[in-house]
Amino acid sequence: MIRYKDFSRIVLLAALVALPACASRPAPRIFVLDPPGGAPTGIVSLRDRPQVALLAVQVPDYLDTTDILTRGTGHEIVASDSARWGERLSVGVTHAVLSALQARRQDLGIAPADSIDNRPRRLLVQIDALDLWSDGRCTLTARWSLLDRDGETVLVSLASSFSIPAAATTTIGEGGLVEAVSRAIADLAQAIAVSLPKA
Fold first, then answer.
1. Residue 168 has pLDDT above 80, yes or no
2. 139, 179 in Cβ contact below 8 A?
């Protein structure tokens, strides 16, 4: 029978053995989807343009984490142990879509829903699937709707899928994976921008 004193020594020894392994592991790389300089710079007034409120982009629950997830074999999802998102994926996607829309549709006053206090048109975006593979392939399926100021009349209701092909090299790395997701999000934002009515 192991006495408490002996048990404590075993636990302490195990912790000391594990400590160098933990200390030698480099800190994970942190990535965001929103590119630098994506949105218009300077002071921009929303009042003189038709206002559109972008609600938080919805993503599947299992993706709404800071883990960078890739598809494994079968139904397996694999979390990167050397990289992660700097914010929850839904937050990062919302920021990236907002920046891209602001850059593409400067005739509209597109802003986060919580920053507009009147009754603007509302843009709802839902990502149904966002699959990423270690070779850089990325597929994204999404739908979006634009509601009029009454909150009920649907002005736009569309869905589409976007696909980023595998990279030319067999080893792509975390930066390449993030770039694939960024490209898919940019393609989605472009499709949304084109679908929104003219100001």
1. no
2. no
Where does 38-172 have alpha helices with state H? 89-104
User: Which neighbouring-strand residues pair with 85?
Assistant: 31
Specify the residue for token string 């898919």: 184
pTM for the full predicted model: 0.82
**Which of 157, 50, 133, 138 lies closest to 93, judged by CA?**
138
Domains of the chain, earliest start first = 28-195 (3.40.50.10610)
| pLDDT, mean of residues 121-139 | 96
Place 8 in a pLDDT band, splitting at 50, 70 and 90: low
What strands, in cross-sheet order, belong to the sheet with 121-132?
109-112, 51-54, 121-132, 138-147, 154-164
Please say if the pLDDT value at position 133 is more than 90.
yes
**CA distances, 5 to each of 11, 88, 100 (Å):** 10, 44, 62
* Cα separation, 139 vs 143, whole angstroms: 14
50-74 residues labelled b (16+ CB within 10 A) or e (exposed): bbbbbbebbbeeebeebbbbbbeee
